[in-house]
Amino acid sequence: MREALRNTGIVARKELLTYLGSPMAYIVTAVFLALSGFFFVSFLAANSYADTSIAGFLGAAQVLILLFAAILTMRLVAEEKKLGTWEFVLTTPVRDGEIIVGKFLGSLAVLCGMLVLTLYYALLLVLFGDPDIGPMATSYVGLLLIGSACLAVGAFASTVTSNQIVSVVLAGGILAALWLLGLVADLLPGGVGRVLTRLSLGGYFDAFSRGIIDTQAVVYYLTVTILFLYGAVRAIDAGRWRLAQSQGRSGSLALIGLATLFVAWVLDFVLPIASAIVTWAIVAIGAGLIVANAALEFRRVRGALTSSRGLFGIGTGVSLSLVVGVLLLANLISTTVFHRFDFTGLDQFTLTSQTQEVLRELEGDAGALKVVSFYSDANPNIEGSAEAFAVNDFGFSLLEEYARYTDVLDIRREDPELRPDLIREYLGQSPLTQLAVQIGVVVFRGSEGQLWVLGPQIQAEAENAFTSAILQTTGTRQRIVYFVTGHGEPSTGGDYSAAREGLRDNLFQVGELDLRRLDEIPDNASAVVLAGPQLPVSEREIALLDRYLRQGGRLMLLVNPNPQQELRDLVASWWLAIEDGIVVDPPSHVTPNIDVPLVDARRNQFGLSEAYFPGATVIGPQEDTPEGVRVLPIAWTTPGGWQEKQPIGRSDPSFDDGVDPVGPLALGATVEAPVAADVDEGEHASPTTRLAVMGDSDFASNQHFRNGNNSELFLTLINWLGEGDEVISVDRKVVPLRRLVLGPEESRFLNLSSVGLLPLALLLIAGWVWWRRR
Amino acid sequence: MGPFDPLNPSLATFRCSMIRVEDLTCYYGERLAVDNIAFNIEKGEIVGFLGPNGAGKSSTMRMVTGFLMPTRGKAWVADHDMTRDSREGRRHLGYLPEIVPLYYDMTTRAYLQYAGRLRGLDKATTARRVDEVVEICALQEYRDVLLAKLSKGFRQRVGLAQSIIHDPEVLILDEPTIGIDPIQVAQTRQLIKHLGENRTILLSSHILPEVSMVCERVIIIHQGRIVAQDSIENLSSLVTGDEQLRLRVRGPANEVSGVLGAIAGVSEVTYQEPFHTLRVEAGKEPQGEITSALVAKGWSLLSMETVGMSLEQIFLQLTGAGEGAS
User: Fold this and answer.
1) Would A56 disulfide with which of A40, A107, B130, B147, CB 3.0-4.6 Å?
2) Are residues A670 and A696 in the same domain?
3) Which letter does DSSP use for residue A250 in this model?
4) Does A653 map to a domain?
5) Beta carbons of B90 and A92 less than 8 Å apart
6) Beta strand spans in A495-553 (E)
7) What is the spatial distance between Cα B37 and Cα B49, in angstroms, rounded to a whole number?
8) What residues does B243 pair with on adjacent strands?
């Protein structure tokens, strides 16, 4: 082992010195740096500097690195063959593996040097902004891994030929094919596509640039590296045997085992998770065959693995099967047991366990939930456009994380300017559409309806919003509004069916609640509605509601004039007063009914232009409320209205001074109060109690619900009650907006030095090296 | 002789074979390059490996060094099977391939250091050995010159230096004097002879004088087969059984040739200033008659010596015969 390290080190050192002693490496690096510098600054400029990432450089580098690796490695072995030094190297007591790994490490050192130079971009960002260091670090890990894989492919190509041009073409071809697999995979449906995606060189890189280190990706890149280095070692041995005819059949078992493992690996993507047992059974068979073969051929295998005499010596494939088998197994395991390390500043891309669980349990056909993220490229002429772009770009990256856990999601990003048809399809045509497109919007469309998540929401609580949207649009979990029954209330199947429809359109579920049979209000209640009871509500039921409220419950109470005393007492304990009588509002009513007050935009909490309440009572806020309690009227009458204490007969009611309370009178009120400290933590439904009381229940009945803004009032109140009661509650992480602060001088310096400085320096070194050698 | 038995050390110390080859056969695809050859070189021998271009010399040497694997048969170096644990064998081996293996962007010193390190020497030993081989190969002035700038002869010397950097027991040199000027050839030969004082050397060449000057024994290979292997003297007699006499006579050359040719037992006379060379039939000893015949004519005999047959002649005869036979 020690000798192996020593020999590898000697070869690596020599290769590195050879690179450093020739102008080629400097020129290639200069070209690489010039191109990546150009892409680095042009990406920043395109985003109006509202970004502090090296994304531009990374986008270019992950492709350039293929070419760079192919050129850098072309000389590794091919040149030695041409010079005749190969005969010298192979007759020294150094193992083939030591030579190959040494040469590979030599080229890797050059790659590292090159990447170190690109840290200049990161330095600029630190100087002029406040970049998130984590994603940069992981990007470099990713570049190093993808670079290793490319260099290994290049080393292999250089080993199988003595012509450097052939080597470049071969390496470039293999790398391009591995890269393009990803594009082909996108065109192919289902399992085949997924297998190809897993094989593709580029498919893994995005995660690294986002700040995530995925063990699957690490295993994949290391697999490619090891596989091609092993291939190079085998190629050396093949050269020694002049590709001599294989001499035995002793490896056939192992080769069958290898094929079995490969089948298992493919099945792992094609079959649903339920068939995991089948997959692993096949794995066991395959691995068993290889191990059995290795045991039977123990001596030969040992020889194959320890001496330079390998595959073609034993002529069997046992050694091949062992190496490839182990790699395949590692990949197979990595698809089931994997971990993603998140190095972003706020763990932005680490989905919470709740979200992961939601996604794993998500039911539905593949692609059943369409998620479309609309945003256009940053436009420097529009204020805030770059920020919106950054936020939405982050949102889409996060959605890609979501898509890793389930195939029910069908995510795509669309430019609204290019696809007006999609805008119409998903967003419709309204004034809001224009705004949504401007600030960016993600539309979730599932079997149960569709939801928008807007840019600012993404920035503030992306995961919360996305997961809730998924739960709601798939009908997996919804907010439930319970209507209390049993006292002659209008039923959700009858007089309140329009209200029920309205709630469903807003992705609420509607349930009924018979308090007489319950000991407590269900936990999953988003709000409880007690609307217009005609029979007395028992004291026990009222106590139940009161306890619910004191634990942070959400209650909507719609009472009609002259309710029972117990309800008045309940409301009174929440700082509201109900008095006898019916509201009349001569200046503003729905003609001809003077007892149907009409409320305009100036006289309600929500600025609704028109709402009315047939036969309403006054819900009067009490004067002295304790600190922390907020009581607000929902809607109120004109000063010309009053509460008529006399029953309204045929004649017009008249105002009785001193008897009838005078307007403006509150027709309803909301109460928000913190939960008292002595309530047990475990009983908390939420930290605040919310109560909405309207002095009328008819406004939400079928006859009136769709008129005016009555439905909006009802739904807004329900939404207000349900606020803070998300279907899922996860940590909120606000996406920090980072930008570069540059004056004109600084911006010119950034541009010129990124593109020009390093390449120029390297070209000078190249010239100096060339001159010295002459 | 049967295959060597590694479990019998007494035999090993007794025979001490350094390079051994059995049934060695090498195909390049369909083409047969080396056909079932066998030989054995013992410790301390300098053996010439002789044959025309394309005879299979280089292929054989590559198989002995482990650079190529034989299609059939085996080669041992210092008792290590080069088809099984060639790495052990390679430790005992210095090798100068036909194309001198040089990294032209390195200096002599850097290259020799690299070679030494690859051959398993530690840093200090490498530094010491580099100085030694530079001196042995007379490369002192070129120590820090880029190999690209060296002339052919010096490149050859650097190649040789590389092969002895680790002081190997076995040295395999493929055409070590090819393409260098006559003065350097002589120097190189001297060097090889010097190296052979305490090493086993297998040296290939198609330049015959070189082999006859340096080697004690030759193996002649033609079309992949060994056509002869023996000491140079034995070979001479093996080929024809004839001997040669070389005379220096003061007298008219043509007449002298006529007189000598008439003597019984002399089958052929050639003259090349200043010598007459006579081929003598086997078993005959015509020296007395020659002397008296010359004296009778009044010519004086300045010198007369018995010489073996020249390697060229043996070589031509053997390979020519081989061609005739096939």
Assistant:
1) A40
2) yes
3) T
4) no
5) yes
6) 508-513, 525-531
7) 12
8) B280
Taking an 8 Å cut-off on Cβ atoms, the answer to whether A242 and B114 are in contact is no
- Determine, yes or no, domain membership for A228: no
Q: Are residues A415 and A545 in the same domain?
A: no
Q: How far apart are CA A451 and CA A397, in angstroms?
A: 19
Number of other CB atoms surrounding residue A509 within 10 Å: 18
Asked if residue A530 and residue A416 are part of one domain, the reply reads no
Beta bridge partners of A531: A558
pLDDT classification of A30: cutoffs 50, 70, 90? very high
What residue has token string 């040497």?
A: B61
Contact residues, chain A, for B27 at CB < 8 Å: 242
Q: Is the same domain home to A440 and A487? A: no
In a domain, A649, yes or no: no
Domain end, chosen from A346, A367, A394, is at A346
Contact A88 B119 (CB under 8 A): no
Same-domain status, A468 and A494: no
In the stretch 64-103 of chain A, residues with CB closer than 8 A to chain B read: 83-95
Cβ-in-10-Å burial (0-12, 13-18, 19+) of A517 comes to: exposed
Question: Which of A96, A708, A663 lies closest to B87 in space, CA to CA?
Answer: A96
Whose CA is closest to A143, among A165, A118, A170? A118
Query: How confident is the model at residue A735, as a pLDDT?
Result: 65
CA-based nearest distance B144→chain A, Å:
13
Peptide bond into A592 cis (omega under 30): yes
Name beta bridge partners: B310.
none
Least confident of A328-332, A502-506, A685-689: A685-689
Side chain identity at residue A136, one-letter code: M
Nearest-Cα distance to chain A for B126, in Å, is 13
In a domain, A731, yes or no: no
Q: What is the mean pLDDT of residues A145-167?
A: 92
Q: Residue B210: which of B185, B230, B232 has the closest Cα? A: B185
Shared domain for A468 and A487, answered yes or no, is: no
Domains of chain B: 12-236 (3.40.50.300), 241-308 (3.30.70.100)
Cβ pair B67:A93 closer than 8 A: no
Q: Residue A438 sits in a domain of what CATH number?
A: 3.40.30.10
Amino acid in position A688? T
Taking the CA of residue B74 and the nearest CA in chain A, the distance in Å comes to: 13
CA A569 to chain centre: 49
Q: Alpha helices of chain B — where are they, by DSSP H?
A: 9-15, 57-65, 86-91, 108-118, 123-136, 152-164, 182-195, 208-214, 232-239, 253-261, 287-297, 311-325
C-alpha separations of B130 from B117, B125, B140, B143, B163 in Å: 11, 8, 10, 9, 11
A248-261 pLDDT, tens per residue?
Answer: 445 667 777 777 77
The first and second tokens of residue B163, run together, are 């092969």
Pair (A334, A445) in one structural domain: no
Domain extent for A403: 358-473
Nearest by CB to A85, from B88, B103, B110: name it: B103
What pLDDT, on a 0 to 100 scale, did the predictor assign at position A466?
87
Chosen domain end from A449, A473, A497: A473
Sign of CA dihedral A42, A46, A50, A53: negative
Residue A611: strand pairing partners:
A599
Structurally, chain A folds into a number of domains equal to 4
Best residue of A85, A88, A89 to probe chain B, by most B CBs closer than 10 Å: A88
Q: Which of A85, A244, A308 sits opposite B87 (nearest CB)?
A: A308
Indicate the DSSP class of residue A314: H
How many other CB atoms sit within 10 Å of the CB of residue A259? 13
* ipTM of the predicted assembly exceeds 0.85: no
Residue A579 Cα distances to A17, A140, A611, A640, angstroms? 96, 72, 22, 18
- The structure tokens listed for A243 are 């590709």
In this structure, the answer to whether residues A76 and A172 fall within a common structural domain is yes
